[in-house]
Design a protein that fits this description.
InterPro entries: DUF3047. It is built from 2 helices and 14 strands, in the order αββββββββββββαββ. The protein has 226 residues and is mainly beta. It has one domain: Jelly Rolls (Sandwich), CATH 2.60.120.260. Strands 1, 3, 6, 8, 9, 10, 11 and 13 form an 8-stranded mixed beta sheet that branches. Strands 2, 4, 5, 7, 12 and 14 form a 6-stranded antiparallel beta sheet that branches. It is globular. The protein starts with a helix and ends with a strand.
Amino acid sequence: MVPWHRVITLVVCMHKLLCWIVIFAPIVSWAESERVGIAHFSQGDLSGWQSKVFAGQTVYAFEREADGMVLRADSSASASGLYRAVSIDLNKTPILNWDWKVANILMGNDERTKTGDDYPARIYVIFSGGVMFWRTRAINYVWSNKQPVDSNWLNAYTNNARMIAIQSGSDHVGHWVHESRDVLADYRRLFGEEPSVIDAVAIMTDTDNTGASATAWYGDIWFTAQ
């Protein structure tokens, strides 16, 4: 295995979260289950989640709502996230499920540029290339300010990361939204190849490039067969 510090040096030019996978955190596998729990935020549980700071500290803290606990994220010109190392076989459990809510969208930023690459809420799915660091891939499911829902584009920092607008605009601001995505199908469509096993899932609310502020809430995250 390549030493983690050397891998970080090699991929430092990649986008924010692509560096996370090279930390080589202990991997927990639930691939044989038909429901693979990734985040149990409704139980106030952050077990297995680790923090990565890129530019200032986004504050993540549990908050109680009527239906239970959720994880709140507050960002002010900051970019830090939480990630969990996992091992997910998409041939068995390809569907990613999650719940999220935002208090606001970012205004005026062009998300296809480096200066506008900020989102009030995003979920990453990361596929490591292992020692072949150049093959690291990431899908970013984002709450966009104006990109059409289900549109996709290259990340402004690296071609190894692709963005998909799951929500767009302010129509659902302040409301919980449940999402389901076929990650296997998305990967094939975006990268034109078969994916490796998923190595990590992450969340991030970031506003470092725009200098703006954003608040989001994240519910549970899990994979299912259908």
